[in-house]
Design brief:
This protein is an alpha+beta fold and 410 residues long. The protein has helices spanning 2-10, 14-54, 64-67, 77-84, 119-125, 150-156, 191-196, 202-208, 228-240, 253-256, 258-296, 298-306, 311-347, 355-360, 373-399, 403-407, and strands spanning 57-60, 90-104, 109-117, 132-135, 145-149, 163-169, 175-186, 197-201, 217-222, 249-252, 349-350, 366-367. The chain folds into two domains: 2-50 and 260-407, no CATH class; 62-247, no CATH class. A hairpin with a 5-residue loop joins strand 6 and strand 7 (175-186).
């Protein structure tokens, strides 16, 4: 009986009810879309970053991440890769070795990092092959061929077929010196990477720098970002049972790229502030609507109280009215927000004028929101809770009414 009365009361003023529903639905729609947009952009940022260089995880000597010392190596990489092959959540893996060197062309000398890669496996782990702008990607049969960053090639004033002298230190402390020929030039869009890296085949690197079969990194790519913690736990447990591996550490993408994690946290904090302001605005507009409804019906409430209606029942009916409007508005917002988000998830959004910034971070031109149960649930729950809390004030106000004051109210 009370529910029927509450529902009938809602539609006594259809215009006000529709405006209230529209405000609640709009707030829910905006939150669902914006949360989906943030989560989708984070996944894109992470996958783009790990695809260029780091991978989802890396196995390294425990202190290599901090010191990058030549002698801190994974001495038996095959023992590690054999365990990776047994993990179903692992999509691909490769091995790399790194050295800080001086690179000299006929005209200039620059400091840079030379990275030894397995060309066949590297293509499955990173996007390096697709970043080649001139020449052909490295081949396992190459010896003194090199893949050079676009800005580094420009600084050295070299092009395809030119020679570059490499001078560094080997793992055993010896002088590592060789000459490489520029086979290809890549451009990742990240200036720091394009300005400071040269890639050579891993066997050639190991021979030049006296690595004795060792590497500095075993790079792992998971099938899904959500499976990274599982892979890390399984790999750490497997390596701990094998004394031949020595002391090795497993780092995930968040530990390898703390700057990206901080950027995500900063963006999320800014988003939460925006959402808080949005919800406050929506809550006050809804509160105003509820209060107007109470003021318009004050005499009606006084008559009901004079006829014997308990204040508790009156408050219950009013709260049911507020709850019905809130639930209906949130439901409409979820449907509309999901449809809008789904459309842009399929078609993407091009951020006009941000091409240069996107390129610097290795992000695609077209971004896609990620509609998920989490984004829908969080957005709807925030609006639902705050709107119901807003409705408590009119309910409490009605509960304190007396028949005489209510019937004489102007």
């Amino acid at each position: 009986m009370d529910a029927k009365m509450a529902w009938r009361n809602i539609w006594r003023n259809p215009r006000r009810t529709i405006l209230t529903l529209a405000a609640i639905a709009f707030g829910t729609l905006l939150l669902v879309f914006m949360l989906s947009w943030q989560f989708g952009s984070y996944d894109t940022m992470i996958n783009s970053a790990v695809g260029i260089h780091t991978g989802h995880l890396q196995v390294q000597h425990p202190v290599y991440k901090e010191k990058h010392a030549m002698r801190d190596v994974v001495a038996h990489p095959r023992e590690v890769t054999s365990r990776l092959g047994a993990l179903s959540a692992v999509s691909a893996y490769t091995t790399r070795a790194n050295a800080f060197v001086l690179l000299s062309s006929a005209e200039r000398t620059y400091g840079a990092m030379v990275i030894g890669i397995d060309p066949g496996r590297e293509a499955a782990v990173s996007t390096l092959e697709s970043l080649v702008r001139k020449g052909d990607f490295l081949d396992s049969a190459d010896t003194n061929q090199a893949l050079v960053g676009e800005l580094l090639a420009r600084n050295l004033k070299v092009d395809l077929g030119d020679e570059v002298v490499v001078l560094g230190q080997g793992r055993d402390g010896s002088i590592a010196a060789t000459v490489v020929v520029v086979k290809s030039i890549f451009a990742s869009g990240q200036d720091a990477l394009d300005r400071s890296t040269m890639h050579v085949p891993l066997p050639f690197f190991q021979e030049t720098f006296a690595m004795d079969g060792a590497v500095h990194e075993v790079v792992v790519l998971g099938r899904e970002l959500a499976q990274v913690p599982e892979i890390k736990a399984q790999l750490a447990a497997a390596l701990g049972k094998n004394p031949e591996d020595g002391s090795l550490a497993v780092w995930d993408w968040s530990e390898l790229m703390p700057g990206l994690v901080q950027a995500i946290k900063l963006d999320l904090t800014g988003g939460l502030i925006f959402y808080f302001i949005l919800i406050i605005v929506v809550a006050f507009s809804i509160l105003n609507t509820f209060l107007m409804a109470v003021f318009e019906r004050t005499r009606e409430f006084g008559i009901m109280l004079a006829m014997g209606t308990a204040p508790g029942r009156l408050s219950k009916i009013l709260f049911m009215e507020s709850m019905a409007q809130t639930l209906l508005g949130v439901l409409l917002g979820i449907i509309a927000g999901s449809l809008v988000t789904w459309y842009f998830e399929l078609n993407g959004i091009v951020i006009s004028g941000a091409d240069e910034m996107m390129r610097q971070f290795g992000l695609p031109e077209r971004m896609h929101p990620d509609l998920s149960w989490l984004s829908v649930a969080i957005g709807a729950a925030i609006v639902l809770i705050l709107t119901l809390l807003t409705a408590l004030y009119p309910v409490i106000k009605v509960r304190r009414l007396t028949p005489l004051r209510a019937m004489t109210a102007i």
